[in-house]
Design brief:
Length: 543
């Protein structure tokens, strides 16, 4: 999948555009993404100053050298890249080599003539190479309205981040450039959809003059609210989102070119890195899942932070002394199924600090009650995995009563040892649950997909299709959650409602399913068939 090009733009200078881009680049790279930064502010370059401590040597070239390559008929999109030191993949193409000839080279540029000569097509080829090699290409754009600004805001980007401060010129200019960019994209010979625009209120000081700051926050929102419409979840208010997208003024970081995200590794809400993490997470989520951001900001950021994370183990098996033999057997069979398990023995307090860090999932073997150590283990694991696809699965001994367990464990979907369910069966069921492939149909049970096919062919009185749609909607939810018992109950109910009856031969205006109901049935049918096929079970109704 090609990477995403994101331009950072501000109508006026002094809003912290380069500062924001540099810090977000570091965050994205730290979270496992391949990132390239380009300094297109050719007349006032400076993005490289944020990264100089990470450079092994001064840049030997940059964007202006790409233009020389074009004139000489060379396509070398990566030739002028500076690789930064460190374990992450973070590269920079600066404006150009900072020598005596630089100013003259920039002043001699004639963008209109370059485009007439085919520079637009050349840039398009560069863009294709960059997005093939990187997950994110972040462009630092020239301020104001200019030819360079048009390249950065209309030609190159998939997304646009506009930064502005709480003054009318800055706000109106940011909104106007977004409108200009979309109008320009409509006239381009390249296939570009309308830009989605992220408005970021920067250097906002709400600590003093609270009433005045809230008034200006309202003015900013009124001016920029239309920019939210194309991407914000309809249940999330622009006011709430704009607060999440506000970068506070912190005087300490205004001195020099600094990267607070390098030192504020676990920032609090008062620190600027906290807000920078939020903006970076919105970019990494592709401006999506804003309902989760509104509900739980920490979960939203954590979900991205862990998306590309690798784990040394697939599941941590937590056991007490009484279930040690069961745990050993379970570990053995999990390994045979290709799962990488690790043992967590209750009482080894030193492991608590590491819990959730080296294993993706947590399996608790519960014998009668959850131990205090296991309780702490679960609490720490859940705290560290908010918003991520990481699961806690309780495995109960045969005599353990689920209803007596505390809610944070008892309410989870559990597995239980029994006369016909030993470590081999539990290992298989656990793998199914952790991989999201829990069977919805076991041999001898009702074929869910077959029942849905029957419903799709049924002719019912118009009033009956309302209850059918309600059942199918609940069935969709149960299938998605892998709740086999619930799926079976709903399938039986649906089969009863849609079963052909003797009176069907009588006239009475019976109809096939309405379009919306039929679409719901077909969706549920595909989901059920995927679950059944995955486990090698065949249907019964259609045999």
């Amino acid at each position: 999948m090609p990477g995403t090009v994101v331009t950072f733009y501000s109508y006026k200078g002094g809003v912290g555009r380069s500062f924001t881009l540099a810090n977000i680049a570091v965050l994205l790279a730290r979270w496992g993404y391949r990132v390239l930064c380009l300094d297109w502010d050719l007349e006032a370059p400076g993005l490289d100053t944020y990264f100089r401590p990470m450079m092994s040597a001064p840049p030997s070239g940059g964007v202006v050298d790409l233009i020389d390559d074009f004139r000489d008929g060379r396509l070398r999109p990566g030739a002028h890249t500076t690789r930064l030191k460190g374990k992450v993949k973070l590269d920079v193409i600066t404006a150009g080599r900072a020598d005596a000839a630089y100013v003259g080279r920039v002043q001699d540029l004639d963008w209109e003539a370059l485009y007439e000569q085919g520079f637009g097509d050349y840039l398009e080829e560069c863009r294709e190479r960059w997005t093939a090699d990187y997950d994110y290409v972040l462009i630092d754009s020239r301020t104001g309205i200019s030819d360079i600004g048009g390249i950065c805001t209309a030609h190159l980007p998939d997304r646009l981040v506009v930064l502005f401060t709480a003054n009318v010129q800055s706000m109106k200019g940011a909104v106007e450039i977004a409108e200009r960019a979309n109008a320009a994209r409509d006239r381009m010979p390249y296939d570009r959809p309308q830009l989605t625009v992220l408005p970021v209120l920067s250097r906002f000081d709400a600590r003093d003059e609270y009433a005045r700051s809230e008034e200006w926050r309202r003015i900013c929102l009124e001016e920029t609210k239309d920019l939210f419409r194309s991407w914000l979840d309809r249940d999330v208010s622009p006011d709430l989102m704009s607060r999440h997208l506000t970068l506070p003024y912190v005087s300490f970081w205004t001195f020099g070119e600094q990267l607070p995200v390098m030192t504020e590794l676990s920032p609090t809400a008062e620190q600027i890195s906290f807000a920078l993490e939020t903006v970076a997470a919105v970019v990494a989520h592709d401006f999506d899942r804003t309902d989760l951001l509104a509900e739980n900001r920490d979960a939203y950021v954590a979900a991205i932070r862990a998306e590309k994370r690798t784990f040394g183990h697939d599941v941590r098996v937590s056991t007490t002394r009484s279930t040690m033999r069961l745990a050993d057997d379970l570990m053995k069979y999990l390994a045979e199924l290709g799962v990488r398990p690790v043992l967590s023995f209750s009482g080894e307090r030193s492991l608590l600090d590491k819990t959730g860090d080296d294993a993706k999932h947590l399996c608790l073997i519960v014998d009668g009650e959850v131990s205090r150590w296991q309780s702490a283990e679960v609490e720490l694991f859940l705290h560290r995995t908010l918003g991520q696809d990481r699961r806690v699965v309780p495995v109960l001994t045969e005599d353990t009563e689920p209803n007596t367990l505390p809610g944070y464990v008892g309410n989870l979907r559990h597995l239980q040892f029994g006369p016909s369910r030993g470590p081999v069966e539990i290992a298989r069921n656990l793998v199914d649950q952790l991989t999201g492939t829990t069977a919805l149909v076991e041999p001898g049970e009702l074929d869910v997909a077959g029942v849905l096919r029957q419903a799709a062919r049924a002719r019912l009185r118009p009033l009956m299709w309302g209850p059918v749609e309600e059942i199918v909607t609940e069935l969709q939810i149960a299938i998605g959650a892998g709740e086999r018992d619930r799926v079976q109950d709903l399938a039986e109910e649906l089969m009863s409602v849609t079963r052909p009856r003797a009176t069907d031969a009588e006239p009475g205006g019976r109809l096939l399913a309405p379009p919306d109901t039929r679409m719901a049935i077909e969706w549920a049918m595909r989901a059920a068939e995927a679950r059944v096929t995955r486990h090698g079970f065949s249907g019964f109704l259609d045999q």
